[in-house]
Design a protein that fits this description.
The complex is a heterotrimer of chains A (114), B (237) and C (113). Chain A has helices spanning 5-8, 11-38, 44-53, 57-85, 92-113. By secondary structure, chain A is mainly alpha-helical. Chain A has a single domain (5-113), classed as 3 helical TM bundles of succinate and fumarate reductases (Up-down Bundle). By secondary structure, chain B is α+β, with helices and mostly antiparallel strands. In chain B, the strands form two sheets. In chain B, strands 2-1-5-3-4 form a five-stranded mixed β-sheet. In chain B, a hairpin with a 2-residue loop joins strand 3 and strand 4 (66-69). Chain A binds chain C through residues 20, 23-24, 26-27, 30-31, 33-41, 44-45, 47-48, 51, 54-55, 67, 70-71, 74, 77-78, 80-81, 84, 106, 109-110, 113-114, and chain C through 14, 17-18, 20-21, 24-25, 27-28, 31-33, 35-36, 38-42, 44-45, 62, 65, 69, 72-73, 76, 98-99, 102-103, 105-106, 109-110, 112.
Chain lengths: 114, 237, 113
């Protein structure tokens, strides 16, 4: 018999899913990120051309999303390092809340800056 | 008198949920419901129980999608809308209806070297172990496990990775790693390291969430991660 | 893979995670700062060109990511795609190499005059 979402419906599992999905998305994005920056080897104009493309609202939204994913993956990762290396305490829920909070802060900061 | 609609898994790996109508009683547990069905409605229903008072873990089943001890699950807590769904534990082969084959669960316990390897004989004196020493405290935190299988049934890594030893076996290994009387530390760390062992745990914490004895296998597995890493860095593993 | 090798993989993942944590905090701060008033190549390069500090920073960042991402993807491949064995190991090593090469190229690209 297999488990369904009812068995998974608790905070630590959602934290895992966010961490895994954000990691996957970032890993897929990373090669493009490196390639785009490497464009400057073709001269500043090449990079500026690319940056002009990124001004489109949809791209800006995607960028904001990616930064949120990065912040979420970082916060989740710090939580995991705490759970694996620090003495065990029963305040894991607080760790999760802290991680979520950190992610939101970064997302807001970027939204304001963009 | 109100009745409860109960959907019970019938069959083995393939099968279906069969609906029964069971009279509601005050202070009724899910085990009471299963017992009523087998005794009064359908004698062919197969299920396990023993103590019925929350000590043995035999009555563990999947109730509304969640692994629980049925003798310790009040119907009033789970019967939303007058319905309950009861199935066998997940992640284990189904023998019949609500009874699962637990052999793999215990085989993995053995593969994790979940038993003490003695270093003294009966002629030697007792070991003196301070109960509040850090090692003993760590062992004591996980020692109450009775092998009910709820954590194993709740773990998605068990479902995704056939070789994964699982939370109970790893938790037991951790209690032994912390047991000063044990003589097989390095072999045990080797047994629990790797893709089938502690490193496959992704801290979903379903085990800790569901354990009826309030043990935190996640904590034990984290301890094994640290112990195996240290052993590799020191060249012991 | 042996218990020893698997454990080393876990250590590498956690160690690179710690390095990345520091790098990402810096990176996020730079992003939020740099993005105000729009991005331009001149602005970015004004910071990084001829600056060995940024080159070193991005170099370390890239190498840590080239270790961390493939190990994570390996786990996902094994658990969700059922991919195992030699072919997965080769693919993972290849990915690490590609990330390192393309990443270091990018770090150099924003440093070199």
């Amino acid at each position: 018999m297999k488990n369904d979402f009812r068995a998974r419906n608790h905070p630590a599992w959602w934290a895992f899913l966010v961490h895994r999905v954000s990691g996957l998305a970032l890993a897929v994005f990373l090669p493009f990120h490196f390639w785009a920056l490497g464009q400057v080897l073709g001269g500043e104009a090449a990079l500026d051309g690319f940056l002009a493309w990124t001004e489109q609202p949809l791209v800006k939204a995607a960028e904001w999303g990616l930064v949120c994913l990065l912040a979420a993956h970082l916060a989740g990762g710090l939580r995991l390092l705490a759970l694996e290396f620090l003495p065990w305490r029963d305040w894991q829920r607080s760790l999760l809340a802290a991680a979520a909070g950190l992610t939101i802060v970064v997302g807001l900061a970027l939204a304001l800056a963009l | 008198m109100t009745t409860l609609q109960v959907d019970v898994w019938r069959g083995a790996e393939s099968g279906r949920y069969q609906r029964f109508e069971v009279p509601r009683e005050a202070h009724q547990t899910v085990l009471d419901v299963v017992t009523y069905i087998q005794r009064r409605l359908d004698a062919t229903l197969a299920y396990r129980f023993a103590c019925r008072v929350g000590m043995c873990g035999s009555c563990a089943m999947t109730v509304n999608g969640v692994a629980r001890w049925t003798c310790r699950t009040h119907v009033s807590k789970v019967a939303h809308g007058g319905r309950v769904e009861i199935g066998p534990l997940a992640n284990l082969p189904v023998i019949k209806d609500l009874a699962t084959d637990m052999r793999e669960f215990f085989d993995k316990w053995a593969r994790a070297r979940g038993s003490l390897v003695p270093t003294v004989t009966r002629k030697d004196d007792f070991a003196r172990v301070p109960p509040d020493s850090p090692a003993r405290a760590a062992a004591s935190a996980g020692i109450e496990c009775i092998g009910c299988g709820v954590c194993y049934a709740s773990c998605d890594v068990v479902a995704w990775n056939a070789d994964y030893l699982g939370p109970a076996a790893l938790n037991r290994a951790w209690t032994l790693v912390n047991d000063v009387r044990d003589g097989a530390r390095v072999e045990r760390l080797r047994a629990v390291a790797g893709d089938a062992g502690c490193h496959a745990c992704h801290t979903h914490m379903s085990c800790t969430e569901r354990c009826p004895k309030a043990i935190a296998p996640t904590a034990s597995i984290a301890g094994l991660k640290r112990a195996t890493a240290l052993a590799v860095l020191k060249g012991e593993l | 893979m042996s218990a020893r090798a698997e454990t080393k993989l876990w250590i590498a993942q956690r160690a690179s995670a710690a390095v990345l944590a520091l790098c990402v905090v810096v990176h996020l701060m730079v992003i939020v700062y740099a993005v105000r008033g729009g991005l331009s190549a001149a602005e970015i390069l004004g910071r990084t060109r001829g600056n060995p500090g940024w080159l070193a920073f991005y170099g370390v960042f890239v190498l840590a990511a080239a270790v961390h991402a493939p190990i994570g993807l390996r786990t996902i491949a094994m658990e969700w795609l059922g991919w195992r064995g030699r072919s997965l190991s080769i693919a993972v090593h290849l990915l690490a190499l590609v990330l390192a090469v393309v990443g270091l190229r990018a770090a150099w690209a924003v440093f070199a005059p």
